[in-house]
Amino acid sequence: MPEIERVWQANLHVYGADKVWRQLNRDGIAVARCTVERLMRRQGLRGVMRGKVVRTTIRDSKAACPLDRVNRQFKAERPHQLWVSDFTYVSTWQG
């Protein structure tokens, strides 16, 4: 069904069967969701899968906590007086 591939390509290969089905119905093409699933599977079209939530920190209850060097006072009176960061995790396409 060329309409399925058209919708899939128009949405940057991101849409899965559910969103393709909804878009086809909005476009006035009445088709069952299971039919869209079957035809997409047959054509090898897949939407982008949402990733699992990655657990980045496994806390050690015996380890000492880092010192709070600013006593939770994050207001600086001049530029470059106070720098604070908490960089935990960045998801990339490469893993």
UniProtKB/TrEMBL annotation:
<protein>
    <submittedName>
        <fullName>Helix-turn-helix protein</fullName>
    </submittedName>
</protein>
<dbReference type="Pfam" id="PF13276">
    <property type="entry name" value="HTH_21"/>
</dbReference>
<dbReference type="InterPro" id="IPR025948">
    <property type="entry name" value="HTH-like_dom"/>
</dbReference>
<dbReference type="InterPro" id="IPR050900">
    <property type="entry name" value="Transposase_IS3/IS150/IS904"/>
</dbReference>
<feature type="domain" description="HTH-like">
    <location>
        <begin position="3"/>
        <end position="52"/>
    </location>
</feature>
